[in-house]
Amino acid sequence: MKTALIAGAAGLVGSQCLARLLGDPGYERVVALVRRPLPHTDAKLDQRVIEFDRLGAAGVEFPSATDVFCCLGTTMKQAGSEAAFRQVDFTYVVALAAQSLDHGARQFLLVSSLGANPGSKFFYNRVKGETEAAIAALPFEARQIFRPSILLGERAENRPGERAGIVAMKRASFLLVGPLRKYRPIEAATVAEAMVRVARKAPRGVNIYESNDIERAARD
């Protein structure tokens, strides 16, 4: 029986992923690293309240797990600065991966973003690409990188500008076919379903799934 470790379980994709992990008989235990307790009660769930900037610090206990689901992420608006954004989307993610590897994890599953590229002129895409490259360089048996397009789902915070963009993208989705299909908005639940299904199969090496691949993986 396997143990899953999830970070970012309060987020849009993370909350969906947590629900699926708790319902998956393949996982005996699910450890959630959280900044504050989640409103969940489940015999399989082990919540660990931590400060992510102390990952790897002396005296900070870190749980062992088989598969690690990283759904950490923020926005420039939430972060408030490029430095704060990079701390969450790069520093915390890489620290989580390094600690997981040191504690026996074999598979790391990362929610990234469509357009991630370490050479991008756009800061957001560049940081996402640098994070992917850092994860790919770590010697897990399997590294699964998911690059969704615009995420659909109920968010806790109000994002009127993003909602307007989503409406426009949904209306134009029928035009996005062939190579452009990956730019269609995608449900957070679909991303979570794909992550759990891919985790079961655990294909070796570094594997990248863009939105159209994620949709297929969620069905397979």
Number of domains: 1
What is the CA-based Rg, rounded?
Answer: 17 Å
Largest sheet: 7 strands, parallel
Which fold does the CATH topology refer to? Rossmann fold
> How many β strands by DSSP?
9
| Structural class designation | alpha/beta
Strand order across the biggest sheet? Answer: 3-2-1-4-5-6-9
**How much is the average pLDDT?**
90
Series of secondary-structure elements, N-terminal to C-terminal: EHEEEHHEHEEHEHEH
Q: Helical segment tally?
A: 7
Task: Give me some keywords for this one.
220 residues, alpha/beta, seven-stranded parallel β-sheet, two-stranded parallel ribbon, 40% helix, globular
In words, what does this structure look like?
With 220 residues, the protein is α/β, with parallel strands linked by helices. The protein has 7 helices and 9 strands, in the order E-H-E-E-E-H-H-E-H-E-E-H-E-H-E-H. It has helices at residues 12-23, 76-79, 82-102, 123-136, 160-172, 188-201, 211-219; strands at residues 2-7, 27-34, 45-49, 67-70, 107-111, 142-147, 151-152, 186-187, 205-210. Strand 5, helix 4 (123-136) and strand 6 form a beta-alpha-beta unit. Helix 3 (82-102) packs parallel to helix 4 (123-136) and helix 6 packs across helix 7 (211-219). The two termini are 22 Å apart.
